Every structure is written in C-alpha cells, then in structure tokens.
Amino acid sequence: MIGQFLVGGAVNALLLIVAAFLVSRFAGEIHGRALLAIVLFIAGGVYLGFAVGAGASGGWALAELVQAIALGVLGLLGLRGSPYWLAAGWAVHPLWDVLLHHIGAGHEFAPRSWVIACVSFDLLVAAYVVLAARTGIARRRPSGRDAERRDDRAVAVG
Question: What's the superkingdom here (predicted)?
Fold first, then answer.
C-alpha cells in the first residue's frame, strides 16, 4: 500500500514538474517558479484544511497555519531570490508529513494516502528545482527576434 502511495505521489510530481518546466521555457523562469511556490503554499495549507475539517484542537490548527505560512515564506524567498529556498521548502515539507502526520498524532486527521504520497511528490519537486537551478534547463531560450537582437547588440558593442 505504501508503495502505491509513493508511486502516486511521484506520478503527480512529474505532472507538476512538466507543467513548471513548460511554463518556465515558454513564459519565463519566474513564472515556472511562481507555479511551484503557489503549489508549495497550497501543500502546506491542505493540512490546515484537514485539521479544521476534522475538528482538531485550536493548537493543531495553529501549528498547521504556522507551517503553511513558513512554506509560503520559503516559496516567496525562492520566487524572488534564490531558487534553493524553494527547493528547501519542498525538501522540508516531507519531514512535517512524516513526523507529525504519519508517526505523530496528526494521523488522526490527515489521510495516510496523502501523507505518504507527499513524501515522493515533495522530494521529486525539490530535486527538480535544484536540477533546474544548477543546469538552467528550465530557462527560456531566445527565439528568432530575441536572438537576432542579442546578436545585433553584440556586433554593435564588439
């Protein structure tokens, strides 16, 4: 069962990664990062929804809110600054998932399938962000006129 949840998380992560890659390539890297930052914030917020929906204590709801805000801050830092902040947000979220919602008392309200799938989902997205930052694979490539303008400027300067 756990294996199926991990595979499901990986498949869903690949869908998000492909979407972020395509958005980055065709609309610009900042837009692909924005997509990943928004989804990171949502990933944290879902646990707040689980807690509130299950009638968890105010303390749990507050903890989930703080976690969602922390992930949102990492997402914003990764959007406006280094993408490694975004990768860090995706990489630390599985710790929250496992420690509080799989092992800890949060399993009372967070679906096991969601918690386990998030581990593979989050780690794959984090790996993609690091790979894209290090290699530049998601950067928009200049096309036709943009490339010609750059060549013209290089000739004019050179």
Answer: Bacteria
